[in-house]
């Protein structure tokens, strides 16, 4: 068992034993940790929902980085907002009691998340402001049990997700905290001391894993400190070897400065990362419905929100290139998922209800997008030998030209998901095929935002 220097593991962690039938053990080195196979469930699910919620949802202005922009960078819009709306001595900590969550209904959230068609959810257990959504023993009363809602937000959502849905439950955790005195002292010493990770960050990680058993652990915010400062490899060795989720947990790549897109279970590389081509390592596109913020913004305009057509495009491109899409929403301070977010989630669920066969459990095909017709992306199910051509623009000509599939005379079949009847096609030889799409009214289309052809017996 790997133990971080200066950190006392929770008693539960000390009592854990290796899983029955599991012989793999991982050393606290990146070479060893990176050899761990990614649990298969993560690649199969493809689509998840990110939830950014915290004290920043109270001012709900500009960005979830409100505290930093107001106090550290002193950006004029944030300073003016505070000067205009709050008394002179009002501090960020004064927002804590106003994070009330009186309308937070975890069961209702679970219903909305299930309706989205997502297969996993990741909640911010603690963002860079340091406020924990559970009653952490290490938070010094800066948490949702002792202040504000006086409820264990994490526990309530974990229970509802597991009782009402088949979604995998995950937690985001920020390694660093902007204004924590221990972290600032370590930073001033150029991280030659490790007071903050030993007393705060690492104990929190052991705490949430042991208490809530998340299947995704989404680390973020290294504070420009190296992974050795965070003892990331020591923690991950415990997570993979001895934790209660050692067989199923997946982790990302944000475990220290310079480690992103290099080490970890799957890569995120950057926020809103969508390379548009196949990558050799499993990756995730974490992105926002609100183009300007991860947290809820009262000052957002309708044009700031991505349309469902844009979200479907993000999902299709991401999955075609081997990634997962983690689509973010930001609840209000009182615990509501705003109507605009709920609408987008339910619209995505409608689309997946028709086209999910081309998303869930698929693999990248030999071609990610079509060479002749823009806006056509491919996925593949090897066991069934099915190819899916997802096209984002309905052809007004009545025919769709596909340059990548090579047909087999008398054997190739084409269906439009949600329509059912076999479609007629003609071969272009080595140049692909031309498919006759159904001549139906717009309201008769299987869905209004993107469509899928299922191709069988195609070389």
UniProtKB/TrEMBL annotation:
The name of this protein is: Alpha-L-fucosidase
Q: For site (May be important for catalysis), what residue positions does UniProt give?
A: 286
**Tell me, what is one Gene Ontology molecular-function annotation carried by this entry?**
alpha-L-fucosidase activity
Presence of keyword Hydrolase:
yes
Species in which this protein is naturally found = Sphenodon punctatus
Acyltransferase keyword on record: no
- Which ranges carry the Glycoside hydrolase family 29 N-terminal domain? 22-357
The EC category is: hydrolase
Q: Which UniProt keywords apply?
A: Glycoprotein, Glycosidase, Hydrolase, Signal
Taxon lineage: Eukaryota, Metazoa, Chordata, Craniata, Vertebrata
């Amino acid at each position: 068992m790997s133990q971080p220097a200066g950190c006392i593991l929770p008693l539960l962690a000390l009592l854990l034993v290796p899983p029955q039938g599991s012989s793999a053990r991982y050393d606290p080195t990146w070479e060893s940790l990176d050899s761990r196979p990614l649990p298969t469930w993560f690649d199969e699910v493809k689509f998840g929902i990110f939830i950014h919620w915290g004290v920043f949802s109270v001012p709900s202005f500009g960005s979830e980085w409100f505290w930093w922009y107001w106090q550290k960078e002193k950006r004029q819009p944030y300073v003016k907002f505070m000067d205009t709306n709050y008394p002179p001595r009002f501090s960020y900590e004064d927002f804590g009691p106003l994070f009330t969550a009186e309308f937070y209904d975890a069961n209702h959230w679970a219903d909305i998340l299930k309706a989205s068609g997502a297969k996993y959810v990741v909640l911010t257990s603690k963002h860079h402001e340091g406020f924990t959504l559970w009653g952490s023993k290490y938070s010094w009363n800066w948490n949702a049990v002792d202040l504000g809602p006086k409820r264990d937000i994490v526990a309530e959502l974990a229970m509802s997700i597991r009782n009402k849905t088949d979604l995998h439950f995950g937690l985001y955790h920020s390694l660093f905290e902007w204004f924590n005195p221990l972290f600032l002292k370590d930073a001033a010493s150029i991280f030659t001391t490790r007071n903050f990770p030993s007393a705060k960050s690492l104990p929190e990680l052991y705490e949430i894993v042991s208490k809530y058993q998340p299947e995704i652990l989404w680390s973020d915010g290294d504070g420009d400190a190296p992974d050795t400062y965070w003892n990331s490899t020591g923690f991950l060795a415990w997570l993979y070897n001895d934790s209660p989720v050692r067989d199923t947990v997946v982790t990302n790549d944000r475990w220290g400065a310079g480690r992103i897109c290099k080490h970890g279970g799957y890569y995120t590389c950057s926020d809103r990362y969508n390379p548009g081509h196949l990558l050799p390592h499993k990756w995730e596109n974490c992105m926002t419905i609100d183009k300007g913020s991860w947290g809820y913004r009262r000052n957002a305009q309708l044009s700031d929100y991505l349309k469902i057509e844009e979200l479907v495009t993000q999902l299709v491109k991401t999955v075609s290139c081997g990634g997962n899409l983690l689509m973010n929403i930001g609840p209000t301070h009182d615990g509501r998922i705003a109507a605009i977010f709920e609408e987008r989630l339910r619209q995505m669920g409608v689309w997946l209800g028709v086209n999910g066969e081309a998303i869930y459990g698929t693999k990248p095909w030999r071609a990610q997008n079509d060479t002749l017709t823009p806006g056509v992306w491919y996925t593949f199910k090897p066991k069934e030998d099915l190819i899916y051509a997802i096209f984002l623009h309905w052809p007004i000509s009545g025919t769709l030209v596909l340059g990548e599939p090579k047909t087999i005379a008398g054997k190739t079949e084409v269906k439009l998901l949600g329509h059912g009847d076999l479609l007629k096609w003609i071969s272009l030889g080595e140049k692909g095929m031309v498919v006759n799409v159904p001549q139906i009214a717009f309201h008769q289309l299987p869905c209004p935002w993107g469509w899928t052809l299922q191709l069988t017996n195609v070389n």
